[in-house]
Amino acid sequence: MLFFKECKKILCSLTFVLYVVVVFVMYGSQFVPALESPVAVPQVGEDYYGTTETDRPEVVMPAAVESLVSEYLEGSYDAYPVGFYKQVKLKEKDTVKMAAIIEELTGLSKEELDGFEGYEMGGLFGGRDENGNEIMYYKEPVLPGYELSETVSYERFRELMRQVDDIIGGGSKYKEETLLSYFGTVEKTYEEALEDYNELMTGDNLPESYLRLFSDYAGIDLAIIPVFVCVALWQLDKRSRMEALVYSRKISSLKLLLARYGALVCCMAVPVLLTLLHAVIEIAWLYPAMEISFSSAVGVTLLWLLPSITVVTALGAVLTEAVSPLLAIFAQGAWWFLALESSDLVGDITRFCLIVRHNSMGRIATFETQWENFVWNRCFYVGLSAVLFLLAVLVYEWKRRGRLTGLVFGKGQSRKEGDDENGTL
Amino acid sequence: MQNTIEISHVNKFYGKKQALKDINLSIGQGMFGLLGRNGAGKTTLMKLLATLHEKQSGEVSVCGIPIQKAKEIRSITGYLPQDFSMYPSMKVEECLDYLGVLSGMSRAERKERIPVLLKKVNLMGKKNSKVKSLSGGMKRRLGIAQALLHDPKVLIVDEPTAGLDPEERIRFRNLLCEVAKERIVLLSTHIVGDIEATCEQIAIMNEGEILWRGTVTELLENARGKVFMATVARDELEKIKKKGIVTAMLQQGRNTEVRFIMEEDTNGTEYVPAEPNCEDAYMYCLHQHGCQVMGGEE
């Protein structure tokens, strides 16, 4: 009963209406274009068939070693140890270990590496052409000359890359899970494109691929916007000067907040489910000749998106209750930004990053290799949601009993006591 | 089940500031008034009884239930805070229904009780109006309805008439008297007139302490022979202000008709003894207990 009353409060709020508008607009602008036409069969003679990951040593090894030598000369290594970007600088003993690995791979000694003075960073750069137009161009790095050692097998190379990742502290480009996405990306051939197409049209791959892309886009939105609805509703008692009336009722804090939290999560899931339903219908219409089963794809989508809503809502609730709504919004905004910045579009599903990404209709194998991380990640956030929610209940109960009068937790409460001292103590 | 509130040696601190100092009080059925200045500790005591604050020491029981059993206390207590409102966009009836759910009332109980209360507080005609459209007095009456919703044995009402116009104040006081027939009603106020009109038993609080406890008649009796009236010139008025506590003044041409409390011997003066009213008696009680009373000082 209380749950439905809380739902009604949410559904009638302006913040929730804005939330629905944002969800629909983002869905319409990001995912709906992918539903305009069915995936085309590759034709012979096309200029570009997209990219794919390859495990061919002649592609992966030179690219990875070039990056490693470049980062060694740069003196810093990019990493995402717990999902967040970190620039790692090695201590001397680790630098020696790294130099030894590079020497095994290239024959370049530490002295040669350290003594090389002409290093220039490679990568994509911005600039202007002769007409003054802005352009992007790729520049090869300037590195000391070396040949890849012929005695290092691909297996040994993979082992050395694992060691490199350990030395950096984990989460680097060289780790097992992301090595191919960083260093094995190549343009597809016609045959590969055709093979991918055929794979896409097999079994549940088609709906799963579509809904992975759907989840990728929706996951970004749901890692931030629920906090606004949560904060607005969690603050409603205080803004309406109704706290004391609610605090003095018989209901337990757990039961009350469970109804409120549950109502928030369910109400915020509804527009997402509506867009999902629209997507499912559109996909079915796009491929009228196919018999598509959506059950598994929808299951994965719910596992993908619901934990985002639950954790963002729970963090918003606990921070609003314990500190302030502004801090809740700021903290969630910062977390969202860092998570978005630290996750690659495809092939980089880590265990702790809030935003799970797979921004591709294909790359089915890449997602499948990361399935364990995906499930771990989503279960972790369900667990974290429960912990944060219980923390919110605890803080609420303390405030309700007037136990929290400190600077942070009982800001509202202290102010009231201040009033009391000057007014109606 | 006992029908009293028992408060024994209760102390409460906000940091280093002691808000309640060794409070001892027994409150029985009917209207009980807590009178005191702003900052005397009335709201703190009220919140403590409504389980919204915790004491540092002492014992409190409400109808035999120790105050630590918050859930049980809340089920037999109705609380109307001084500063409150309700969800502005909700309808009056909807608001009461929501609070009824929080009080654990069944749908049937709510359906039966809400119209009865709305009639009692004269808001039946406003049941479909949004809370934000209600006047201050109507909101107060809605407040009393929500406090009575689950038919509590104890009603705690904090400064209920503050900010109300005289007509609404009288209407509200009458309403309180009506509901006090069947339960304990604890009313806090700094408006002496409210107490005089509604309560038989009262306690006066100051700086966290109970200064005095008894009936209104006893309070008036206590001030008998200490209240005077006189029509005096400006010089004489200054003398009275220095020696006593002026409780009322009325300018009459060059002279002033003044009502005051004085403990000194008034024989040989033209001061006329007056029957003390509740306001005089309250001021005298504060003065008697060593509180600095500023009545009439400029």
Number of helices of chain B: 10
Largest interface by residue count?
Answer: A-B, 31 and 47 residues
Main sheet summary of chain B: 6 strands, mixed
Number of strands of chain A: 6
Domains of chain B, number = 2
What's the order of the H and E elements of chain B? EEEHEEHEHHHEHEHEEHEHEEEH
> Whole-Å distance between the termini of chain A?
37 Å
Molecular shape of chain A: globular
CATH architecture of the largest domain in chain B: 3-Layer(aba) Sandwich
Mean pLDDT of chain B comes to 90
Radius of gyration of chain A: 26 Å
CATH class of the largest domain in chain B: Alpha Beta
Q: What about the largest sheet of chain A? A: 2 strands, antiparallel
Order of helices and strands of chain A: HHEHEEHHEEHHEHHHHHHHHHHH
Order of strands, widest sheet of chain B: 6-7-8-3-9-10
How many domains in all of chain A? 2
Order of strands across the biggest sheet of chain A? 1-6
Q: What structural class results from the helix and strand content of chain A?
A: mainly alpha
Stretches of chain A where pLDDT is under 50 for at least 5 consecutive residues are 406-425
CATH topology of the largest domain in chain B: Rossmann fold
Overview of this structure, please?
The complex is a heterodimer of chains A (425) and B (298). Chain A has helices at 2-11, 14-31, 57-74, 92-106, 110-115, 154-168, 179-183, 190-200, 205-222, 226-234, 236-239, 243-247, 253-286, 295-322, 325-342, 364-369, 371-400, 411-422, and strands at 51-53, 77-79, 86-88, 123-128, 134-139, 185-187. With 425 residues, chain A is mainly alpha-helical. In chain A, the strands form 3 sheets. In chain A, strands 1-6 form a two-stranded antiparallel sheet. Chain A has a two-stranded antiparallel sheet with strand order 2-3. Chain A has a two-stranded antiparallel sheet with strand order 4-5. The radius of gyration of chain A is 26 Å and the shape is globular. In chain B, helix 4 (107-120) crosses helix 5 (136-148), helix 5 packs parallel to helix 6 and helix 8 packs across helix 10 (278-288). The radius of gyration of chain B is 22 Å and the shape is globular. The mean pLDDT of chain B is 90. Classes of the chains: A mainly alpha (425), B alpha/beta (298). Chain A binds chain B through residues 1-2, 5, 9, 12, 236, 240-242, 244-252, 256, 400-403, 405, 417, 420-425, and chain B through 14-15, 17, 19, 38-44, 47, 50-54, 70-71, 74-75, 77, 79, 81-89, 97-99, 101-104, 107, 143, 146, 150, 158-159, 190, 208.
